[in-house]
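Agenda item 2: nicotinamide-adenine-dinucleotide complex prediction
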Amino acid sequence: MSRLAGQVALITGGGSGLGLAILRRFVAEGARVGVLERDAGRVAMLNAQYPDAVLAVEGDVRSFADNARAVEAVLARFGRLDCFIGNAAIWDHGATLVGRSGEELERGFDELFAINVKGYLLGAKAAAQALIESEGSIIFTLSNSAFYPGGGGPLYTASKHAGVGLVRQLAYELAPRVRVNAVAPSGMASDLRGAASLGQQDQRIMDTRSPEAISAILPLQFFPDPEDFVGPYVMLASRADNRTLSGVFINADCGLGIRGIRHVAGGLDL
Ligand SMILES: NC(=O)c1ccc[n+]([C@@H]2O[C@H](COP(=O)([O-])OP(=O)(O)OC[C@H]3O[C@@H](n4cnc5c(N)ncnc54)[C@H](O)[C@@H]3O)[C@@H](O)[C@H]2O)c1
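Presented output:
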């Protein structure tokens, strides 16, 4: 396991769920990893668990200064940056257009887009120069909601669709020096929270979804763990295994595209 030997990655939201699973696998593959994470306890846990291979920095992806500080800390400690992984995001717990007030949608839009879209843009901006120098890559975590309705409400679905545009435009702008791609997972057991502006900051995705309900809508019919999604990240980050992919979306969604998301609540009850 040394497909990423010598490489340095920076992951946002690396303290939990999918980001933590990617971190563990990247370290096992020989990489050193920086993390930008807003939860102070998770930052302390990572720095204690991985004193040599990981450097976790506390901060918020909505702030360009925090993104820049994380990149500077990684360069100071590890000397280079090969891969930026935009991953920190929040959900909307399926908040619907008709079920929420106009003011809630206004606030919810600003919060979801600030974290899920602006956070990725600002992280890419902070990392761009170092990635151009290393001829590295960017990987964004999107979602089945980047392609299909029914995996959230209009706020989350629109924010993940916006990520598709970000990948395409950055892949266009940063070629030929930097490859830009995305992984779009399906549901999994994580700590994914809702929007504070919608009163959902303490609500986890698995509080309102069951493993049975998720596996029932997935053609492959099982409930994935975060670890089940990390293989595509290793492949996209690896220089040996990925010389050719840029502007590509890996739909790691247990086959959802075969028939879309069926049999979940969310339509108008007429
Ligand atoms: N859980 C799912 O079912 C699912 C499905 C598809 C896609 N995803 C995507 O996977 C990615 C990772 O989410 P997860 O499910 O592992 O959730 P998670 O909550 O377990 O992990 C996200 C991490 O990001 C951090 N974070 C959140 N907002 C932040 C901010 N503003 N600044 C810095 N750090 C912040 C959190 O503290 C947390 O440690 C997200 O992009 C999410 O949209 C998740």
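Discussion summary: The domain at 8-258 is CATH 3.40.50.720 (Rossmann fold).
Owner for follow-up: CH.
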